[in-house]
Design goal:
Length: 261
Amino acid sequence: MAHDLPLHGKHAFVCGATQGIGYASAKALAAAGATVTVCGRNDQGLVKAVEDLPRPAQQKHWSCLVDFASWKDVHLAAETHLKSAGPVHILVNNTGGPAAGLAIDARVEDFQRAFEMHILCSQTLVQVFAPGMRQAGYGRIINITSTSVVTPIRGLGVSNTIRAAMANWGRTLAVELAPFGITVNTILPGYTRTARLAALFDGRARRGGSTVAEVEADAIRTVPMGRIGQPEEIAAAVVFLAGPSASYITGVNLPVDGGRL
């Protein structure tokens, strides 16, 4: 029965949903009964993502094409989509990480670009969607960041900075929005089998004169579970935090990292 699905009747807006954690989260939310809007900048990827989404409650799914390089473009796209698809109850903020490199070597423009893509675009989406969440008395804002929120990762200077800012932004919103039945939580993925991780391992191997297999083995040695995580394991946490069972959990930074932290 559709009404037995925990997210039946809810609308989820998932950023970065054409691959990796975003794609896995969109599929898991749809399987739990939500109507899902997949958001990203790859139009062909969005078409495929919508086609791949399960429909256990015969729900209609949507796509939203926008580049997170501009918060103004995101604002316009979100407002336009809201008029077509209706109120959003679950927002998954998930944006690709900034390029690798030392913080001391980063240009001011690198920090500005990352701040706009992550903080400003996420802030814009919350401001567009929060009124509908308040009216429904139900809202879930879930930010996907990194374990670097707790322990900075060497060689990811800009990313470490912006990810930490996202987490504290989320905790601030959690206090402000709690009276309206809106929770705000941040998931901190550890090593997860994504294109982003593959690129980072490749870069480390080239800089260190080693192989990707050696870099991966070194990484796995820091994980008590002894393996790399799968996007679906992050998505499972997203679905839990998006559901009614997590109604009293807010302002949390949740590591999903095999015990690494």
